[in-house]
Target: FAD-binding domain-containing protein
Amino acid sequence: MSNSDSSINSSSGSSVIDASTPVQKIPVLIVGAGPVGLFEAVLLTRMGIHVRVIEREPEIAPMSRALGTHVRSLEILSLVEEGFIDKFLAQGRPLVDAHMFYGSRPMCAMPVTSINTSKFEWPLFMEQERLAKILEKDLAEMGVYVEYGWELTDTEAVESTGGTEESYAKTVIRRTIAPEGQEHELKVVRSEYLIAADGGRSTVRHKINVQFPGRTLPFRTIMFDGAIETDMEKHEISAVVGVNRKTVVFFHMHDNIYRIVLEHGQFAPNDDLDQVNRDLTVEDFERNVRACLHPGTEFKVLSKLWLICFRVNERRAENYVHKGRIFLVGDAAHVHSPAGGQGMNTGLQDAYNLAWKLGLVMNKLAPATLLQSYHEERQPMADRAIALSSALMARARDGGLINHYMKRVFMILSPLLAKIGIAVFPPAANMLEIRYPANDINLPHKTQKQPNNVAHQVGARAPDGPLLCLLPASKDPSPVDKNKATSVEKNCVFVHDVIVGVGRFHILVLVSNSLVDPASLQERQEALAKSIKDNLSQWRTRWHFITVQGDKPDNQLFKLHVVATGTLSDSHRNGLLAQCAQGDGRLFWDCSEEVHTAFGVPAKAKGRSSMSEGAIVVVRPDSHIGFRVQGLDKSAWRDVTEYFETILA
Model:
């Protein structure tokens, strides 16, 4: 920073500001450079929003609290842009099995999670630090760099006084500039919005006086990272029901480095956590782990990276949005036990939910009232994560002798349970069934009934499924294609491969088998093509902004995709099927009818002359269903336009 842009205060670390303190104006200030804050910065930057990211620590935290990225989080990472997910997959390992032990005795391997409906079959085992570094690098490639060593000392939402000036967030930040810590550089940041991703002890949350109700559990948990030596079988995950009724879990991080989480009894009323940690030694840890194992089992610590005793807090902020200007995300908004790996994953989804809404508002495409839906939709997801992690933690805890015998019965039956597909974590751990309530952005149709299946209703995650992409026949067809009017890509794509792009609505036009009916093919296709052309043109003229997709400017807020089904060979009889532009130039074929079924749309049209068959489904930028209407006639398209008018300015 230039000298003209800085101010020195040398009064023993004081944060007193005066008229000489420099003021910086910026659209968005993000406090905290963990995975959640970095992901928020990546998303907003891709939507053309200028952000500043500050982090109190001197670097990305080398100790990773989170180790797994769940299936739903992998999905939202894949939605950023085509190929974005690849850099994460390259750094992690599929988390397939957990090996169950009674003491030192191996019992079976059980799947970590149950079969799901995503293209990602398994969670990804990857330390939080690696995920954060990938996001930081992506951000740097877009010209945004994390400013380490800056801490927030105060913040407030300054409300408009009724004049021309709007409200804003006023924040005081500082960094140490003398080794002794006695001198600081101070700045005042005036931002349109502030996003607090500064962890469970959030300074922002305290400064704006948002309550954080909940409970602190009385149980001790020891967490260790380091190298070990043992004659037990080593696996990615080893869950041990101890012979002493306690539970210990081994996670293989990399090389010979393991994370070990050990149940360690209850706190006494007068116990001091800080003193417990000062007294905790490697020898104590080794002794407590060995007590879980059968006598004679070798276990020794070779080196220690981290050893800490903690107790679990289960808390959630009363409000995620403060005066329309300050937002809480991730651990700043909710904390709970690490059981089930819900914490960082819930935070990443907080970031995605907030980013597209904030991007639309700041690009003058939506009213500021849209931002309140962030709290309405995400706070219940924190309650869900707390309940799930609490239940998993209670299941592992020493619950007395009867509970211990029940665990032993489970261990005896575990090989059978594994064979029938019973998983370590319940399906909810995948986070795929999350559904937001009906509101203006999850808008039920005004006259049509919602589908009976909640997975098809507005607010639900858009389901995934395989599709073939039909392309116009090549100008110089091969002998194989010579008698065909269309060609087919060799590899199938998935719905979630198609609905990519930050801050973008995707309109899925599911036409069932209506386009392969020879009696009405040309009539239906011409009517459909006209509806698509007219409505896309109307929407894109009224609402557009610049986003960054694959380093190329793209002002299309809407993408439209036609999905048809039927016998594929029928499509070859008429070149109009793929030659005619459909939406954004591609026609997707639902060969197995799986996608139509997943969206609750009949795969076989009953009528021939009308456009009453099929459905239009609007997928929000975060891949939740925002609106759906049965039929493809003029009234259906009008209803879609009215839906956009309820959200967009």
Observations:
- DSSP finds 16 helices and 32 strands in the chain.
